[in-house]
User: What shape does this take?
Amino acid sequence: MQFVGLVPGHYVLEAQVRRAASGAAWSPAATSSFAITTPWWRTPAALLLLALAGLLAAVVRTRESVLRRQKFQLETIVRERTSELIQKKHAIEQINGELLVARDAAEASRRAEAQFLANMSHEIRTPMNAVIGLTNLLQHTPTNPEQSEYLTAIGSSSQNLLVILNDILNSSKMEAGKLTLEQVAFRLPEAVRGLATLFRYAADSKGLNLRVEVADAVPAAIVGDPVRLQQVLVNLVSNALKFTRQGGVTVRAGRASEPAAAGHVALLFAVTDTGIGIPQDKLAAIFEDFSQANASTTREFGSTGLGLSIARNLV
Assistant: This one.
C-alpha cells in the first residue's frame, strides 16, 4: 500500500478487516500514528544556504567576467606598449648608430685637421727660419738707414710669424696626442730667473718693471720637463707684457700648500701684471683655441689666442 503526495506532518492510520466469504462484520479499527518530517533541503536554513550559494556563484561568475575583461584589456595594453617599446628601441638603435658614425667622422676629421696643421706648420717653419737667418745676415752688411728699417721690420714680422707657427704646431701635437713630457734633472731657480733676461728688452722697451721672485723653499734641482715648463711660463709672461701698458709684471715661484707624495714636491707658479685685466665672464673663454676676451684684442695687440690654450693643455 502506498500513500503518494503526503506533505510533512503527523498522521493516524486506521485499519479494519473482515472475512469476505463469511460476511462477518468488520473488526474493530486498529490505529497507528506516524509523522512525515520535512526534508533537509526544504528547511528554512537549507533554503537560505542555497540562496546564499546561488548569490555567491553569481558574484563569482560576475567577478570572473570582470577579471577576464580586465585581463584582456591588460594584454591588449601590454601588446601595444611592447610594440611601442620595440619601435622606440629600433629608433634609438638607429640614432645611436648614426651618432657613432658622426662621432667617427668628426674624430677622423679632427685628426686629419691636426695632422694637416702639424705638417703645414712644419713645412712653413723651415723656410721661415731661412728668412730669419738671411735677414740677420743682411742686417750685418752695410745698409742705409731706410734699408735697416726695412730689415728690422722683416725680422720682427718673421719672428712673430715663427711664434705663431710654433704655437700651431704645439697645439696640433697636443690634439693628436703626440706631445710627450720628458723627465730630466734641471735647476729650477735658474730656469725661472732666466725669464728676467729673456724678457728684459721687451719690458724695457715698454717702460715696464719685470720682477722674478723665487722662494727659498723651492728645491735647487728637480726632475721634470724644463722645456715645457719654460714654454708655459714664457706664454704667461709674454701675455702679461703684451697686455700691460704701464706698471709691471711679477713672476713668483714657491712651494704650494697642497701636500705632495713621497719623493715629489708641489710648486706654485704665479704671473701677475697691472695690465688691461680680464672680464669675469671671459675667464673660461680665453683658454680656448683662437679665443680672445675682446674682438679688438687681435687688432690692437696682435694676439692669436693660442698661448693660454697651449699653457693650459701643457699643465
Summary: DSSP finds seven helices and seven strands in the chain. The radius of gyration is 53 Å. The longest helix spans residues 44-139. The beta strands are 9-15, 30-36, 184-186, 209-214, 222-224, 248-255, 267-273.
